Amino acid sequence: MVEVDSETGAVILKRYVALDDCGPQINPVIVEGQVHGGVVQGIGQALWEEAVYDEGGQLVTGSMLDYALPRADLLPDIEVLSTVTPSPHHPLGVKGIGEAGTIASTVAVYNAVIDALRPLGVTSLRMPLTPQRVWQAIQQAKG
Amino acid sequence: MYASDFAYYRADSVAEVGRLLRKYPGAKLLAGGHSLIPLLKLRLASPSALIDIGRLDTLKGISVTDGGVRIGALTTHAEIAASSDIASRAPALSRAAGVIGDPAVRNRGTIGGNVAHADPASDLPTVLVALEASIVVATGETERTVPAGDFFQGMMTTALGEQDLVTAIEVPAAANGQGQAYEKFSHPASRYAVIGVAATVSLTVSTVSNVAVALGGLVPAATRAGSVERALSGQAPSAGAIAAAAATVSDDLGTDLIGDIYASAEYRRAMAPICVKRALTTALGHAFSQAETAKARSPWWKPSWL
To answer: Between chain B's N and C termini, which has fewer beta carbons within 10 Å?
Structure first.
């Protein structure tokens, strides 16, 4: 769940719920940690991370001062839920969980922002959804 | 990248800083190192010598003065943010110090280093200009005081000369009934202010007075927004009056607006009135609640139902 600041274009993450199924969990703490890491990496792609090159091919987001990695204070508490469906193809019934959170989170956050902008007729935007990009879309939609 | 070679000296007194600066022209002063070290590593600066002032204990700490607070140049952002003396006398400074960078930066970075570096996207210059603080500068044995409004002259350019050392910052205490705010549009990576607006306002009877607004991140040096100040002064406080005053900020921005890959000059120009509006709204809210508290404490004031 996201909120878009209609004046600035800033995206504020309000709530994130992840539901994954890796079968029986040998170490639930590690499962939760893997989901957290994956979710955050995916959100980074949706909202912050971007390799920008100038006309000369020079990478201009080459340092941590410019390339925005997700940081804890930008994120809500991630609510992790799981179902347990054993895999028939493995003697322990287990399935992978590493980075499973990544798969859904980019799309979930992106679609949530687009859904917030839908009343304005915005149906797609280039990632990452920086405040400037969202603001431009809002301005264009308003005409 | 490694920094290019430099000589290293550690000063044990303010007088010795003066001697070393005379002896090694072009030397840079090292305090918390959070602006200088990145510049050295990017080789944007290659001084022949560094003079470490980090152990000059006389430049550390916060003291309450008759008119406000005196903050030693080597006081860290974390110490400023945690100080109850500053929170009660200069709340906008307290808030700004608490949103600089991240905890690691706040624990090492110093107010003196911050103002001497004068990055346009820095938080403290904006607040110091709005609060009409003064920068205390030592040249050898002599000391002078420079108003913050005169100190910040351009992008990373200050009133400091080659032999000068910032020793302290003097910040006047907020007047009774004054509300202060610092509104920051933070860069998600660097945590510098894409836009920073500091505002102070007072409420007298039913009009807004003593309006001070300063802008950071938008222009090469922290600057007062004179048009906004004039537009709001003497008005009755309302959302409409604030929005109308904030809209005049375009007259204060000039043509030399900062823009980069994260936020273009056009975007910053559009965001400026919004950030000014939010800073003024918060500051006015604080002024209101102070007026309410004063009323509740006054023996002459009686609630209407009595």
So the answer is: C
- A74 contacts on B by Cβ (under 8 Å): 188
Contacts of B94 (CB under 8 A, 6+ apart): B80, B81, B83, B86, B87
Beta bridge partners of B10: B52
B102 touches chain A (CB under 8 A): yes
- The answer to whether the beta carbons of residues B17 and B55 sit under 8 Å apart is no
| Interface predicted TM-score of the whole assembly (ipTM), two decimals | 0.90
Which residue among A7, A65, A131 sits closest to B189, beta carbon to beta carbon?
A65
- Residues B122, B198: contact at Cβ < 8 Å? no
Cβ-based burial of B206 (10 A; exposed 0-12, middle 13-18, buried ≥19):
exposed
Q: Is the dihedral of CA B78, B173, B283, B262 positive or negative?
A: negative
User: Which neighbouring-strand residues pair with B154?
Assistant: B157
Token pair in block for residue A126 = 């280039």
Q: What are the CA-CA distances from residue B101 to residues A9, A65, A131, B11 (Å)?
A: 22, 10, 19, 28
Q: What are the structure tokens assigned to B44, written together?
A: 């944007």
Do the beta carbons of residue B201 and residue B282 sit within 8 Å?
A: no
Q: Smallest Cβ distance to B274: which of A7, A47, A60? A: A7
- Give the closest-approach CA distance of B270 to chain A in angstroms: 9
Contact B264 A64 (CB under 8 A): no
Share of chain A above pLDDT 90, in %: 94
Report yes or no: B228 and B209 within 8 Å, Cβ to Cβ: no
Q: Do A130 and B274 touch (CB under 8 A)?
A: no
Residue-wise pLDDT for B102-154, tens only, equals 999 999 999 999 999 999 999 999 999 999 999 999 998 899 999 999 999 99
